[in-house]
Specification:
Blueprint (H helix, E strand, L loop, with lengths): L6 H9 L22 E7 L11 H6 L10 H12 L7 E3 L2 H9 L3 H12 L3 E3 L14 H19 L7 E4 L7 H9 L4 E4 L4 H10 L3 E5 L8 E6 L31 H16 L6 E6 L8 H17 L7 E5 L2 H10 L3 E2 L1 E2 L7 E3 L2 E2 L8 H23 L5 H17 L11 H29 L28 E6 L6 E9 L4 E4 L5 E2 L1 E5 L2 H4 L10 E9 L2 E8 L11 E2 L2 E4 L6 E4 L3 E6 L4 E7 L2 E4 L1 E8 L25 E2 L5 E6 L3 E9 L2 E8 L5 E7 L10 E8 L7 E5 L5 E5 L19 E3 L2 E5 L3 E7 L3 E4 L5 E9 L15 E2 L2 E2 L2 E11 L6 H11 L3 E6 L21 E10 L2 E8 L7 E4 L1 H6 L2 E7 L12 E3 L1 E2 L10 E3 L7 E3 L8 E4 L4 E8 L2
Parallel strand pairs: 1-8, 1-9, 2-3, 4-5, 5-7, 6-11, 10-50, 18-21
Antiparallel strand pairs: 6-7, 12-13, 14-20, 14-44, 15-19, 16-17, 16-20, 18-19, 22-29, 23-24, 24-25, 25-26, 27-28, 27-33, 29-30, 30-31, 31-32, 32-43, 33-40, 34-35, 34-37, 36-39, 37-38, 38-43, 39-40, 41-42, 45-46, 46-54, 47-53, 48-52, 48-54, 49-51
Helix pairs in contact: 6-13, 12-13, 12-14, 13-14
Length: about 1000
Amino acid sequence: MEYFSCVALFITLFSVNTAVSGATCGFESCPATKINMINVHLVPHSHDDVGWLKTVDQYYYGSQNRIQHAGVQYILDTVVEELLKDSKRRFIQVETFFFAKWYSEQTEIVQRAVQKLVAEGRLEFTGGAWSMNDEATVHYQSVIDQFNLGLKYLKDNFGDCGRPTIGWQIDPFGHSREMASIFAQMGFNGEFFARMDYVDKKKRKEDLEMEMVWQSSEFLKSSNIFTGMLYNHYSAPPGFCFDINCQDAPIIDGESFDNNVDQRITDFIEYIKTMSKYYRSTHIMVPMGDDFQYEEAAVNFKNMDKLIKYVNDRQLEGSRINVFYSTPSCYLYELHQLQQTWPNKTEDFFPYSSDSHSYWTGYFTSRPTQKRFHRDGNHFFQVVKQLSVLANLTSTQHLENIENLSEAMGIMQHHDAVTGTEKQAVAQDYDRMLFKAIVGAENNARDALRSLTSLKSGEFESCLQLNISVCAFTQNTANNVIVTLVNPLAHTATQYVRVPAKNENYLVTDEKGRKVTSEVIPVPWQVLSLEHRPNDTQHELVFKATVDKISNFLIRVLPNPKNLAQENEYFPLEKIQDDSDDLIVENSLVKLTFDKSSGGLKTIQMNGVTENIEQHFGIYKGYQGNNGESNNRSSGAYVFRPDGDIEILNDKVQLSFYNGTRVKEVHQHFNDWISQVIRIYDEENRVEFEWLVGPIPIEDDIGKEIITRFSSNISSKGKFYTDSNGREMLERVRNQRENFDPDMSEAVSGNYYPVTGQISLQDDEKRITLLNDRAQGGSSLKDGELELMLHRRLLNDDAFGVGEALNETQFGTGLIARGKISLILDSATEKPKHAERLLQHELDLHFWKFFSKSNGIASVNRQLIPDFSDFPKSVELLSFEQYSKDQILIRVENFNTYGNVVSFNIYPLFSSLNGDQIWETTLDGNMKLDDMKRFKFNQDSSGSIPSSVEYYYAPHTPLSADSTMTASDFVVTLVPMQIRTFIIQQRN
């Protein structure tokens, strides 16, 4: 096959070798429709996974086709060629990563041709993020960032015509309410997807509720957004796939003996008539495409041209079917013009079940170490963006380093990346890309901290293996080590800092030379025994630090003559062997009671509340099916299908106790592959559970999924609560859904939900909340119980496409994972306390540690650091980054979940950043909020039909000010849970 090489293409390109004329994109470019007919919007598209069975580069270049035939560069080559041949043709492009890579390789003449296609609405960007992100396991901060990246690229290259207005989430495995809220806050008119619980879809078809108005936020007004479910996945109608990878017959016309026009057109019309019965309007949308289709687009478009021609010819015989090329935005425009009402939706679309034995809830936990690395990547990304702004790092190389990390994080959001549903080789490639980008961006952090502190030659190294208490920088000695702590939060915070170190006598001092009390704590022997872990450091030095934005702490090793006391306190790890009494572990805020006879947790007392809480680990054995039939489906990368009841580990747990002054730890050993540290910090109102799981044994040839379960006497009445992508909490009711009766053939996996940040339950008096450090599946299968799935190791594929078992190995054995869960016991409240979200935010974005060598105290030039003290306590800094060379983007979020409206003045921050102008934008940062105008659709429950088309505008008066105005013009007000985004233009 040939790409951009034929004479016809040269002629076509020659015809556009002129300046792009005035833009006619938008609804002016939409095709004409006909009244009293079923208008069929054909939407040509190609779903191009940013990694799955092949790596992103293998998909782009078309290599390794023995795995899957796919080459995205050829898709874009031939699609553009075919669009230029006929002004009626349309195509939507979704994944900005692939498009940007392709566009950068094109000649100027091809780029001009693409600009013309976009300006005329013939090539339309839909979605527009760097990748089509997952919706279960992603964190909202990372989702916003990757939309910022993708939409900014489109804006910079194509202006207003490049901005999408539709969310196109056709492949994620379930859909979150927060994702819908993000679309609404970005000013999108609607979203479409293709996966929904099969029982829900069946009922919606019967009730004409395939399209609806989704109330995407409990707190934000104007958050309703139109949402549509595609009829036949995101594929072409059965029998009408014209792609070279399909076997369906082409449309054969002319004098051929094989002429099949009449039959093919009759079949298509019958399909449309059937489909139209399940939708409310006279407009229906029919996708024409699938995974990696249009590699030879001439075949697709030639047959669609014939389909359109011959179907419309039937109108002369009385047919009421009108077919044309269209886009999702044009389709939604026509629905908006109808001024009718639609069903309402308030909850989300989790969990997703494709049949009676296939709940796609396993991927909530799949690849737990990668899910943690994804969260670490976001953490470092926020830190390095802030440091780059503070130090004014705007050189080409510095901006490129940030861009590379932004792109790597954008790829990681993909629905076959962070989900863990890719092949093992692809997972390793994702990790490689992210690690490389982090290493590159560390140069920004180093240059920034050399500018912002007195350590002009400081190393400022990060340690990415602190989760197993390893830091190469302190491996030989922690003597004369400066720990520079960067606080990505808006407010001054106090946290405990842990540094891998040898068991020596340490003195820790702050920037003013004042002694900071510290302790040396032994690392659990189960961690020390990890294969390939260097064991030079078998302890951790722990001290408490208070940091506004940047602070330095000096660690020195002092001689320890016998007649001198240690500078830092040291307590031995005491093995508990006496079973006679309970073990009491307590500080000023928390009291834990352990049953010595079993070794397990027994009671927790905190916040004036006492509750019997037991914690256990358990094993679900994966169903061992061996084919893709529903009743024989295995647990796999996507699906969680346990075989029988859970096995709770009830063997006696070995206990050791570290009774420090500020840190108290109970080390638990459950078996050869499960251990845990339960710790409490003085003046911290939480209990930390640091678990270590793996290698999961498979000697019995059975895959296993490992959970931890917390059991209490709280009468939760079947209800529990999980977060939506780290933001708003949703009520879950065991065995129930919002508007349909689910198939609970799989009663365990059918009650699992994604837990990105927290899961909780309560009764009238008490509330338990678990905060986790990565996305996991979780549930409450009995009243008073909460469980989280920690790790999975499976020996069979679930036959949903990945083609290999989820059997992760490392160093020749099963993968070991380590992570943290924080527990809060408190009195019950009507709504979740915003303090829980603030704590979750602080745990996600704790102090980032940088290490340097120095024999003296280091200082910070605080004159270079803006003051965020005007921010109310409930307001946090969500984003603080360089938007362009002379522009800074700031996002602020009100974490309050009650009716408290808060205000602050942003002028001091504006002034300290040398601001000239400031304006407010949509959530993504790429459109002025003044310009936002999105479709409003009324719900059936509204009780009235609108008399004219209606729109949503900015929910408040957007901030717009400049340096000539007074401080009173810079007041920012936030309602509960609101995020506001601003761009500051700096003076030259």
